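Hey team,

Filing this mostly as a record. A colleague (T.K.) asked me to run one chain through the structure pipeline before their review meeting, and I want the input and output archived in the tracker in case anyone asks later how it was produced. No errors, nothing strange. Just documentation.

Input sequence:
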Amino acid sequence: MADTHHRLSVLAQDPSAIHCVCGAALSAMDRVVASPLFIGCPPSITATAVMYAARVAAGLLPAWPQALLSLVGYHCPSDLLQPYVDAAMQLLAMQQ
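Output structure:
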């Protein structure tokens, strides 16, 4: 698990470190799933778009490391995900 944390830009064993990386995405999920922009969007695409948008907003580099590609199977950014990433970025901006 520590190796995965490192590849996701989390350099600590403490669960609160994971919250630092994923917190914005987790906090935005209520707003995202209630948004008409995501109606009919598969949950895997919704989660991927929100996680990618949160990592970009947090300035994490790489924004979409190989570990996430391996875990979810989606390339970010991509034409398929871009409309959802844009929507997630808007919702994250409203959260701040």
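Quick notes for T.K.: DSSP finds five helices and no strands in the chain. Residues 2-95 form one domain.
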